[in-house]
Amino acid sequence: MRHFGHIAPEVRQRLFHQEPCEFDADSPSRRLSAALGATLYSPATRARLADDIVKQAGRGVVSMVLCLEDSIDDSEVPVAEENLVRQFTELAGQEDADAGLPLLFIRVRTPEQIPDLVRRLGPAVRLLSGFVMPKFTEERGIPFLEALATAEGASGRRLFAMPVLESPELLYRESRVETLEGVFRAVDKYRERVLALRLGVTDFCSSYGLRRAPDMTAYDVQIVASVIADVVNMLGRADGTGFTVTGPVWEYFRVQERMFKPQLRRSPFLEGQAEALREALIEHSMDGLLREITLDQANGLLGKTCIHPSHVLPVHALSVVSHEEFSDAQDILRPERGGGGVLRSAYTNKMNEVKPHRAWAERTMMRAEVFGVANEDIGFVELLAAGIPG
Fold first, then answer.
1. What pairs with residue 164 in β-bridges?
2. Alpha carbon distance 232, 211 (integer Å)
3. Which residues, in sequence order, are bridge partners of residue 131?
4. If residue 64 lies in a helix (H) or strand (E), which one and from where to where?
5. Whether pLDDT at 258 is above 50
6. pTM
7. What is the DSSP code (8-state) at residue 192?
8. Contact 373/323 with Cβ under 8 angstroms?
9. How far apart are CA 26 and CA 349, in angstroms?
10. Domains parsed from the chain with CATH numbers
11. What is the pLDDT of residues 128-180, one digit of tens each?
12. N or C end of the chain: which has fewer CB within 10 A?
């Protein structure tokens, strides 16, 4: 699979200076963590889940979470588990089942579900990439990670963990640092199995009876923004000790009435189709999503939790490295620059300071590998327009 692999090769050639690379479930974990992109969640109760997975893969989705936790009622868990096993078996029986499917993860409720589901999946476990672990702290998380290691050994299949940071202990100031230190100890011990850390911002808001409006981002809710900052501070460092931290979920599909002026400027949009695209984005509350994705990236997050297919393409379009970013990163990482120094960018509009900007450049080049580099005259508007089906 590859990002933007659902669009025609001749269109990709027009859009990209460097096309996104191909990857699969057996690729190196560092590449996979950067490539997760918009991870689409789906309740595990869906009757046509196998068909949904194939359909979403054809629309550019490269990672999905099949949820047995908050998205379904407590009473539905046994039925949802049975449905998961049945749908995985159906997928595994399809011709070329291993080709083109997204990375598939199961969000469980308890550690015991992990080895049990792996056993019940049987040969179809080859389609599974790992498990999402809710309300992760050191105390609650270690049993999940131990269960994952047991299931991995029993199945012979590499399985990844994606802990969700969403517990009240992370939110409360008096327990936050101690909780984050514990989370780090847990995930560091199982570092080779932890693909990414996910943020449960909806749960954070729940602890204070809050819910952000569609014209506000997670960063406008100060108590949430402070948690994101501390998570990145302690768990997302660029010194080799950090992990990929993904952006919070965007809850909205369509706005009936808005209080504030739309946030999406007209100037990046051309006449005709692009102006119509702008109006459609505003109508479906995507202007707030686009702003939040941009703030995610500015705050050190990569990828995003999504609960609606319409959110996937904006995440991927804004993850593509611009030609200017790529040019700066290349200049900073040239071998002859190893001693440091300052240079003017090739675009002659900024200073590139080699040593302070090196970590940014390395991160940018990894993003360029998996999401590609746009041609010099291509922006996110063209990427959005090209990726919309039909």
1. 198
2. 22
3. 106, 161
4. strand 63-67
5. no
6. 0.91
7. G
8. yes
9. 41
10. 1-20+320-390 (no CATH), 23-319 (3.20.20.60)
11. 999 999 999 999 999 999 999 999 999 999 999 999 999 999 999 999 999 99
12. C
